[in-house]
């Protein structure tokens, strides 16, 4: 198998069937360099994770989750037919043409919003093939190759994800969160509908300036920060 090629300062690590997200977190705990990309190119699923080394508090650094989502949309948008629509759930879910197709997740060395994390990892998993030929059994779920993307090579998509994420990262570092806020909002799935996230339910009415979720329930609007999405690798 051809090994993926990444931009300078990024390095690849083949998980060889293991969970790249868990592997990236383990490597980060062992003080690997930022820019490590762990990946697993299985037949049915593409999985990958990037290690970051933020120099800002976690409450701000957690925007790497939606940033990597925008990077993914830009990557697939450049490779897929133009009629394929990519949208992103605030909790990290990935949708193709309205069907759930994968998800991003985030972990960090700390859960304290005001602390500067020693490391932060964002991973994603994308279904390439549906679990069954009878897609009517799971109408809310889909897969990359079920949506007219049969010519999209997983290695090419992985490489493009890292490149486009780097572009978004540089723009965010130069200009702050405004561009990311605008770009992600244009891809939002579930806006103005009732959603359940981080143990809370309400109408998704928008984002605050740090891309926290504004959730309305009755007359009350609550802010759920991106740090609520932090998870522990299994």
From TrEMBL:
Q: Does the keyword Ligase apply?
A: yes
Q: Which residues form a coiled coil?
A: none
Domain annotation DUF4444: ranges: 197-232
GO MF terms, alphabetically ordered: ligase activity
Superkingdom classification of source = Bacteria
Name the keywords, alphabetized.
Ligase
All residue ranges annotated as the BPL/LPL catalytic domain in the record: 6-185
The protein's name: Biotin-(Acetyl-CoA carboxylase) ligase
Q: What's the source species for this entry?
A: Yoonia ponticola
């Amino acid at each position: 198998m051809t090994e993926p090629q990444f931009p300078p300062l990024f390095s690849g690590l083949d998980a060889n069937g293991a969970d790249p997200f868990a592997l990236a977190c383990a490597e980060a705990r062992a003080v690997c360099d930022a820019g490590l990309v762990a990946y697993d190119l299985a037949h049915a699923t593409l999985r990958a994770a990037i290690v970051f080394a933020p120099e800002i508090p976690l409450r701000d650094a957690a925007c790497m989750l939606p940033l990597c989502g925008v990077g993914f949309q830009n990557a697939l948008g450049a490779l897929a037919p133009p009629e394929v629509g990519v949208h992103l759930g605030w909790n990290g879910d990935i949708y193709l043409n309205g069907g759930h197709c994968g998800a991003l997740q985030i972990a960090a060395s700390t859960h304290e919003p005001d602390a500067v994390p020693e490391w932060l990892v964002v991973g994603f998993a994308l279904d390439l093939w549906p679990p069954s030929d009878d897609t009517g059994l799971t109408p809310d779920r889909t897969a990359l190759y079920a949506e007219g993307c049969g010519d999209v090579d997983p290695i090419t998509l992985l490489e493009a994800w890292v490149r486009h994420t780097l572009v978004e990262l540089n723009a965010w570092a130069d200009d702050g969160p405004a561009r990311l806020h605008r770009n992600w909002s244009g891809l939002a799935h579930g806006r103005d509908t009732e959603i359940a996230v981080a143990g809370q339910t309400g109408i998704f009415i928008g984002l605050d300036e740090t891309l926290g979720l504004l959730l309305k329930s009755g007359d009350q609007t609550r802010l759920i920060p991106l740090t609520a999405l932090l998870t522990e690798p299994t």
